[in-house]
Amino acid sequence: MTFIKQIPNLFTLGNLYCGFLSISYAGSSQYKNAAILILIGMMLDSMDGRLARMLHVESPLGKELDSLADIVTFGVAPSLLIYYTLFLNSGWIGLAICGLFPLFGAYRLARFNICSKEDSMEHFIGVPITAAGGILAILTLFSGFIPSIVTIVIFTALCYLMVSSIKIPSFKKVPLPRYGTIVTIFLGALLTIINLESYKKFPTFLYVATPLYLIYVTYRFIKIRESR
């Protein structure tokens, strides 16, 4: 029973490790790999909470661990990715600008943690840091087709939207993890249609995480159909 309680936390730690690896890849100028690891972190993040509810092992520890992982994978990692790809030659000004993203993201997570469970099930206040970090990762993947000024504008807008009071619909009551499913489809299409040689060496995690997540989504779909 003790191991079962830790299963969701293992997925959360996997999310955190993806953030660490993303930062490492970004520091080595492997920006596409760094962006993909953030997206893989999104998949893992979409699974830990649902697994905790499925196994009836939700706990304050898991909630706090999830927030710590999110600030690394979807706060620090995307901001460094943007810094290395857009602001590297801007000196301390670039560092100061990029540093705003994890600061606002941390505030957003702290505000989410103190809101009531009922409110968090119905809507989010401000854009979740997971979605914001994922958007920056996708922008980096397609940086060759997107003008830098567009990315900068979106980056700035996301900083504000995370700490805004705008209500965003929550998908927690939706049977399938929709944003995670979208990421999975995106990654699958990416593997199919692009020339892998142009992206050099993809992390092995990409080929492991995507099919595992598809299996998870299929299992969830079958279980929901059986319960009806």
From TrEMBL:
It is found in: Endomembrane system. Belongs to the CDP-alcohol phosphatidyltransferase class-I family. Gene3D superfamilies: 1.20.120.1760. It comes from the Bacteria. GO terms for biological process: phospholipid biosynthetic process. One of its GO terms (molecular function) is CDP-diacylglycerol-serine O-phosphatidyltransferase activity. The keyword DNA repair does not apply. Pfam families: CDP-OH_P_transf (PF01066). Keywords: Lipid biosynthesis, Lipid metabolism, Membrane, Phospholipid biosynthesis, Phospholipid metabolism, Transferase, Transmembrane, Transmembrane helix. This is CDP-diacylglycerol--serine O-phosphatidyltransferase. GO terms for cellular component: endomembrane system; membrane. It comes from Virgibacillus pantothenticus. PANTHER family: CDP-DIACYLGLYCEROL--GLYCEROL-3-PHOSPHATE 3-PHOSPHATIDYLTRANSFERASE-RELATED, CDP-DIACYLGLYCEROL--SERINE O-PHOSPHATIDYLTRANSFERASE. It catalyses: a CDP-1,2-diacyl-sn-glycerol + L-serine = a 1,2-diacyl-sn-glycero-3-phospho-L-serine + CMP + H(+).
